[in-house]
Specification:
The protein has 295 residues and is α+β, with helices and mostly antiparallel strands. Helix 1 crosses helix 2 and helix 9 packs antiparallel against helix 10.
């Protein structure tokens, strides 16, 4: 199944939902960063959550999330745009923990249940909005749900999952269901019953269920009206060698000269995608002199 995301609304206008599959982009993140199983599960949930939230709260621009807990994984940082691009990293990608009491990857223990989730929504107009909520569990989905309840002032459910085996990332995805102002007690009861019998997102994916199948299962009892076609998602970074060169231009002339003479080059690594860029001695000397367009 290709990675994709789709929005929908119930026929009675009481619920909206967004649902995504992210198996390939999570696998790409794991490959780029050399992630452990636990780190893959954590970053996979965060990447999926960011893609879903970007679709809900940002018509343009991007959403950035930073999970800063007291667990050994350190910072988990992700960002996503409504155009379907997602990227992210964890501070300590090799952290591995034993499975938790439920037999699942211990994402909560890795991130930690004490700390904060910082969310910045850039609508593309130069005035980003930032919010901070305390972590509720470090399990990612519950923490994103707390942010949505605080920021949107509406009841919601966030379900995220990443399934791994010795073969790699076999399934990843998630969904957000939000109550709209016209909801009733019956709406809440139906959704609660559906969630109780839902199981896990990745289990349904591994059974071969499509996005539409899973969406109709969580919204059973409601008429489902898709608002968009399935739109593609991908792990995609904005870093380039040119951006690295622009960053070098803020350094003092003496620092550039020292790099050129002592190291013979400058090397930089992108946190988000782990790509590395080198700028050679001649280009550094050009930058120090303030001229030249060569590489």
């Amino acid at each position: 199944m290709e990675d994709g995301i789709v929005k929908a609304i119930s026929g009675d206008g009481t619920i909206r939902a967004v649902i995504a599959t992210t198996t390939n982009l999570v696998a790409e993140a794991r490959r780029r960063h050399g992630l452990s199983y636990t780190a893959t599960a954590a970053l996979g949930r965060a990447l999926t959550g960011a893609a879903l939230v970007a679709s809900v709260v940002a018509k343009r621009g991007q959403v950035t999330m930073k999970f800063q807990g007291n667990g050994p994984l350190g910072k988990v940082v992700v960002d996503a745009s409504p155009k379907g691009t997602v990227r992210g990293y964890v501070e300590n990608p090799q952290v591995e923990l034993p499975l938790n009491s439920l037999g699942n990857f211990d994402v909560g223990g890795a991130i930690g249940n004490t700390g904060y989730l910082h969310v910045t929504v850039d609508h593309g107009f130069g005035l980003p909005c930032s919010s901070t909520v305390e972590l509720s569990s470090g399990e990612v989905g519950e923490d994103i749900n707390r942010y949505l309840v605080n920021s949107e002032q509406a009841g919601s459910v966030v379900i995220l999952g990443t399934h791994l085996s010795a073969k790699g990332v076999e399934a990843a995805g998630g969904l957000i269901v939000q109550l709209l102002p016209d909801h009733t007690e019956d709406t809440i009861c139906k959704i609660e019953n559906n969630i109780t019998t839902f199981g896990t997102f990745t289990f349904l994916m591994r059974r071969g269920m499509s996005l539409d199948d899973i969406l109709r299962r969580v919204l059973q009892g409601f008429e489902v009206q898709p608002l968009t076609d399935i739109e593609p998602l991908s792990f995609s970074c904005k870093c380039t060698r040119e951006r690295f060169i622009e960053a070098l231009k803020v350094l003092d002339k003496q620092d550039l000269l020292a790099m050129a003479e002592e190291e013979g080059q400058a090397e930089g690594r992108c946190h988000f995608c782990n790509a590395t860029y080198q700028v050679g001695r001649d280009r550094l000397l050009d930058l120090a002199d303030g001229y030249g367009q060569g590489g």
